[in-house]
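User: Last request for today: this protein with nicotinamide-adenine-dinucleotide, please.
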Amino acid sequence: MKKALVCGAGGFIGHHLVNRLKKDGYFVRGVDIKKPEFCETNADEFLVLDLRLDENCVKALTLNEGEFNEVYQLAADMGGMGFIHSAECDIMYNSAMINLNMINNAIRKFRVPKYFFSSSVCVYRDMKHGESELSEEQAYPAMPDNEYGWEKLYAERMAMTFGKHNNTQVRIARFQNCFGPLGTWIGGREKAPAAMCRKIAEINGVEGVIQIWGDGTAVRSYTFVDDLVDGIRRLMDSNITTPVNIGRPEYVSVIDLVNTVAKIANKKITIENIEGPVGVESRNFSNEKIYSTGWKSNFSLKQGLEQTYPWIEEQVRKARSESN
Ligand code: NAD
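Assistant: Here's the final one, the structure of the complex with nicotinamide-adenine-dinucleotide:
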């Protein structure tokens, strides 16, 4: 039986990845600074550890019997655009400490055969509406829009360099925005799809107003979590040694996103534009590398939101009844 360590298993994508690895027949140890918020983990073991600390990375990697075949590193100080802009120092310190210590221990000291790192399309520069797609190589010359992207870029380079010198196969995915049930939906770290679902779910009745940051024309693609996890697994089994974009090529504006959620919720929504951190103007990335693994996205934005909105609506209802 193959053994996998999932760092960040208490988080959104990490939790779904644990489920997938269990389905694929792995022994899984999850590790995170917190347990999953919304349901029990399916990992065989779950350690609560702060991975910024060297000794905790050693604990995470040490098994009573045998060694890990694969390490999946998804732990990060992470959030949507509001968080990325307000918590720059935390992101640059906390996520860098996690990556420095995990890469050094997993690759140089424990010499794990395979190491996965979750990067982000935030490593790319800002793009204009209608620009043709960027390939992975076009992350250079580097000019990420935010500090989160710079930290990811350094961690990518460190993982690849340590892999090259220590005979570890390193796989790196640059995720586009990911959404789905069990993702952060409140508290300031939620990303746009969850935030829109929550705002619309919070409206009593069939009509209401929601506020969005900026004019709503910023373009993004949103990838349903099951598709993303499938991409991670395919990439890990592939021979691709350089970073790989993973994202559904369905590019929509924030206004389109709101309208799609409103339709699912069956509510008439009016948008009020307010000042706020909008992030880059547009996105458009090549998926040729991940397609070469046989991956394709199976969930449209609408299909993914049809699974996500009811879950967030349920969380809003529960939170209300608890506060009453
Ligand atoms: P998440 O916040 O739900 O998961 C990250 C997990 O890391 C959290 O459970 C958190 O507790 C854990 N963590 C933070 N600090 C830690 C520490 N010191 N020690 C141990 N664990 C710690 O985020 P997610 O959406 O599941 O993202 C997973 C990974 O994918 C992250 O690396 C993120 O940067 C990357 N990513 C996500 C998206 C997205 O749209 N969700 C897009 C691009 C990249």
